[in-house]
Amino acid sequence: MESSLLNEMVEAFKCLPGVGARTAQRMSFHLLERDREAGLRLASAMQQAIDKIGHCQLCRTLTEHEFCKICSNTGRDSSKLCIVESPSDVIALEQATDYRGHYFVLMGKLSPLDGVGPEQLGLDLLENRFETGEIKELILATNPTIEGEVTAHYIHQLAGKHDISATRIAHGVPIGGELDYVDSGTLSHAFDGRRAY
Amino acid sequence: MESSLLNEMVEAFKCLPGVGARTAQRMSFHLLERDREAGLRLASAMQQAIDKIGHCQLCRTLTEHEFCKICSNTGRDSSKLCIVESPSDVIALEQATDYRGHYFVLMGKLSPLDGVGPEQLGLDLLENRFETGEIKELILATNPTIEGEVTAHYIHQLAGKHDISATRIAHGVPIGGELDYVDSGTLSHAFDGRRAY
C-alpha cells in the first residue's frame, strides 16, 4: 500500500472485533476522504476513555469514577445483587427489566485453562459483600455456557456458606421463537423448567 | 449508559461506515475490557494519519508526501494514465493487474446536485497534464454507475480536445459468475460488448 501512515492506520483498525483487512481499509478511507473531523473526535474519545475509565470499587463495572452510577445510587434496593459477566450485560438488563437492585460484574467467567480463577473475577470482593449481611437475594445471570454455568455454581456455593439464597435466570425458548428452530439443549431445558399455567 | 466517557466513545464509533449502536458498543467494550493498548495504538495511528496525510500534487491520491509512490516512481510508463474515482480503486487495480502506467484519482465523481463539478474533481489539474503531450492513452476506470459513466464521458471529451485516445474498462459478466444471477443491465452490456473468440 502507498502511504505508510495509511498502512499503520489500516493495520490498527484490525484490532476491532469483526474488522478484517477490507473493512479496516474501508474505514480508513472513509475517515480520510469524507470525515476527518469525526475521525479526530473518535481518536480523542478513545484516548480519553482508555486513559480515564477504570473499575467501580464495589461492583467492578467500567466507570471513570470510584463508584459507578448504580452503586452510588442510594435509591436502589441493596438487598438484591445480580451477578453478570460483563458491563454490557448490565446495560442489557437495565434496558430490558425493571430490576432496581445492585450488580456485581465478574469481568469474565471461571476458566482455569485460561488462568481465570476466583481471584481474577474479584470473588474475594464479592465475599466481603456477603459478609456484611446486607444481601438477601443473589441473582445469577451469567451466560448459559459451560463456563457461565460453572461460575454460577461456584458463586451459588459461596453464597450458601453465608446463608444467602441464590436464583438463576430462566433458560428456555426465546419469546417470538419457534419450537422447531430452537436447539435441543434449550428445548430440554425449557421442558424441564415448565411452570404451572 | 453508565459512564459519560464510555458514552462518548460509543457515539464516536458510529461515525465509521457500517457501525451502528450495537457494534459501536461492542467495539468500545472490547477495547476497554480486553485490549486497551491496541486502542491507544489505533487512536494515535488515526490522529497521525488524519494530521499528516494530504493529497498527491500530481494524481490527487492520499499520501503524506508531496508526490505519491506511484507518481514519483520513474520506472513507470508515463504515457498511460488511468482515471479512477478513489484511492481504494488504485489499490484494487495495482493488486489485480500488471498495469505499470500512472493514475489520476478524482476523489469523487461528477454530481452537480451535490455540488461536485469539474473543479472539485481536479479536472483543471488533469487538463494541465493533457497539455504536456506526454499522455498517449487514457484508461477510464470510473465505476459503472450513472455518475461514473457521466464522469468518464466528460473526461473522454476533454481528452478528445487534446487528441488523446481514451479506453473504457470492460463491463460484463464477472468471472466465476453465473448468467442467470447477473442483472439484465450487465448482461445486455456483456452481450453488446461481445468479442471474437
From TrEMBL, chains A, B:
Q: Which GO terms describe its biological process?
A: DNA recombination; DNA repair
* Organism superkingdom: Bacteria
One Pfam family from the record: RecR_HhH
State what protein this is by name. Recombination protein RecR
**Protein family (similarity comment):** Belongs to the RecR family.
Q: Which residues form the signal peptide?
A: none
Q: Report the residue ranges that make up the Toprim domain in this protein.
A: 79-174
Zinc fingers, C4-type class: 56-71
**InterPro entries found in the cross-reference section:** DNA_Rcmb_RecR (IPR000093), Rcmb_RecR (IPR023627), Rcmb_RecR_Znf (IPR015967), TOPRIM_dom (IPR006171), TOPRIM_RecR (IPR034137)
